[in-house]
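seq:
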Amino acid sequence: MLRVATRGSALARWQAGHVADLLRAVHAGLVVEEVIVETAGDRNREAPISAIGGRGVFTKEVQAAVLDGRADLAVHSAKDLPSSLELQPDGLVIGAVPQRADARDALVGAALDDIAPGGTIATGSARRRVQLADRRPDLTFAELRGNVDTRIAKAPQFAAVVIAKAALDRLGRADVIAEVLEPAVMVPQVAQGALAVECRPEHASLLAAIEHGPSRRCVDAERSWLATLGGGCDVPAGAHATLDDDGSMRLRAVLSSPDGRIVLRDENDGDGVALAQRMLAAAEAFA
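struct:
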């Protein structure tokens, strides 16, 4: 039997169930039990994530359940994991990145070009705000947090809200999407749409069968970019890696000043460290 630690939201439990299904498909007779864990991000649903600790507020308590033996694995949205290796807890490894879902963002309520001048878009993400404002300087923004159902329910109060497409797909709510934002318009958050399964080293071999190599390559490139940048979810930044049919990678990234006045976009052949260094140098030149 394997015990899988997860947050208690509908989306988190879907993700844990998905990983459990993948494992049962390759390990006959495996019994999987969920261990529900409440995180700091779950306890405080009003404050901006950057104000309560940034990346890590949805993962630390789940990781602790594996470290103290209450669970064997932890399933996370990979975008919630800090990118710096120094912040990886001793005793845990990312044992698998299953096949990634759609990484793009989606608008619920109205398509971008259909929003009236001065319309308000609700999102708790600085990355989303600066990119939308860069395309539509007339827009205004409101803070919005909560689970997917909460944000969908509040959408009529605004011109639109922004939600990750993968979350809507996984919960069967793709019907509410007004527009999917292509990466040329909205570069996704690092590792958006991907899952990360953490474990103690002795369980890593068990997870090898659900690893998806192309997804891991893309997620690793994006995470190396963010780690070099030294940023978290409070930094207006995003990166998205894709693979061509021949296996070559393209890494697209965006980095903004906190006030959104300067928005830098760049891309390269998948070297996250080099791309981040080049963008940081460009940002210093504009300082």
